[in-house]
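INFO batch 0412 | record 1 of 1 | parsing
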Amino acid sequence: MELKNKKIETQLSHDNCKKYEGAVVPPIFQNSLFSFEDWEAVDRAFENPDKSFIYSRGKNPTVSIVEEKLAMLAGAEKAQLFPSGMAAISAAIMYCVNSGDHVISLKNLYGPSSNFLTNYLKPKFNVDTTFVQGNSIEDFEKAIKPNTSMIYLESPSTAVFSLQDIEAVSKLAKSKGIKTIIDNTWATPLYQKPLAMGIDIEIHSCSKYLGGHSDIVGGVLMGKAEIIDSIFKREYAWLGAKIAPIEAWLLLRSLRTLAVRMERHQYNALTVAEFLENHPKIKFVRFPGLKSFPQYDLGKKQMTGYSSLMSFQLNTDDIKKVKIFFNSLQLFHKGVSWGGFESMVYAPAIAYIKELNEKQFENMGISMSDIRISVGLENTDDLIDDLEFALNKI
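INFO prediction complete | emitting tokens
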């Protein structure tokens, strides 16, 4: 009997064992090149380089296994892996824009993405970007120009975790012939399906929840085959943005436990967020899973669950006390990334204090007393004890 309509968890956990001599874990194809029987075989491969194994800078069997699994997870026709999230982001943006175009994006955008738009595309290719709040569809409508070619979303957004109405933005964009991209790393393809809402290209940093073990750097683009094939032949192939087979293999390992890990991340995050929300030394918590979150209803409409990255504001303006809290945490690792098994803490002020004044902080919707945490897979009692200990220091 053939089982049909298998659930996501089952599909992520199983591979075609018969294809690999019964091995439950597919092998790593660590070779740089592939040989052929004759002239005709080589010729056929070069006619379809996006479907043939010729040289591992192009297609590689290990990488292809993972791409197929990721495409299934997101409901995409095709996926393309990259060696980093930023490699995927820059390739997607370059696919969508030409010299002299106009782009719409968010004020609270991942820093390197914002820098790529403003400090690279603008001076080199005269691509202008209008940054909007993005909380309402009117923000995007007002920003559209005759030469707007792309709207770049990030929902929830960096630092403040504000949401965009994904379906409304994609409908607006399609009516104007504008391409849409979304960084969906926070929600993962398990909890948010932007492609089903009309988005053209979905991006993920595989270094975060998809990898989940803090031992992979990677990125992925997903969408219609026509789009991904074009990116493969141009932005991917010409810029040489190849992911290593070993990293793809580690990502495949991680996908087997993605659903289980995300359930725990969500439970832990909600538990910690509720603790913080009720603490007298916390002004407020930014987490879409809390009912007090201003866009809670929109989140429920377009997400089926929550990950574990959030921010909160300490009830103090004294940067010395902010540092004391930060340095007093013992279980929360101090660092810039997130989405791994371990809990992490970061303070935006560490980077922004060197570049922005207090007014610019306010324009971004954050302050010097903002703290960002990624809640890992540890016991929540221990994490709350750690936070309580640090809060008592201030």
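INFO post-check: The chain has two domains: 8-255, 258-392.
INFO record closed
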